[in-house]
Model the fold of this input.
Amino acid sequence: MGYETLYMPDHFDKQFSPLAALTAAAGATTRLRIGSLVFDNDYRHPVVLAREAATLDLLSEGRLDLGLGAGWLVADYEQSGIHFEPAGTRIARLEEALEIFKGLFSGEAFSFSGRHYTVRAMEGFPEPVQKPHPPFLLGGGGRKMLALAAREADIVHINYDLREGRINPQLIKTGMADRTAEKIGWVKEAAGDRFSRLELAITVFVAHVGEDRNEFAATVGVGMEAEPEEVLEMPHFLIGTIEQITEQLLERRERYGFSNVVLPGAMAEALQPVVERLTGT
Done:
């Protein structure tokens, strides 16, 4: 259908294990990139995940986007019994994990001593195909996480403000147009000279193809306490005809710089004509 990348999430509800699913997708294709959106750093030790990721990059012949996150969904932690620590601790742990990933992907003996992890003279194997490492995808909706992404990531993903740890209408309102622009400002400030080399990404969580654009936006807006115009401007929503959605994506690329847009898998077929228009395929 012309899509460039298949991303898999990493939660404990009814979904496939991302590592196995991505391996299957890579083996069934030759050009499709694969990626995690995103691996929760608390679920796997970085030494373990680095080896799995390098293997996946090797087996896919260099088609992996390595998405990493500090963890946010409280329900996952409560159900699994994994301790849910404060955001600052989780982000600091992820920052150390990134250093370990880079060290183990280098192909040389690597040691690290931090507050959360210790690695002693370990040589990462196998080496990933992509050098110096598969593209790092990091993101979030809070300033601290987006600053880390701006400093370390290749792909920066703009998300809702996830500090509450659960999904509700108030969380969705943190994805309004003005809040999105503010988040990109944080990224630009933290990235400095790196900003021009970053790929900005966003996930569309609600997509609706049809002629009833305003009516659909009004219905959705009731539960969010938002006006239809606000709903239509939310970068996490795509509502309208194929032509209107195509125009929306082009406008958002111009306004925010989004060149990487993640669409819901359930809407992949319905939105395929948009892909045709944007890629010329």
In short: The chain has a mean pLDDT of 96. The first strand starts at residue 5 and ends at 8.
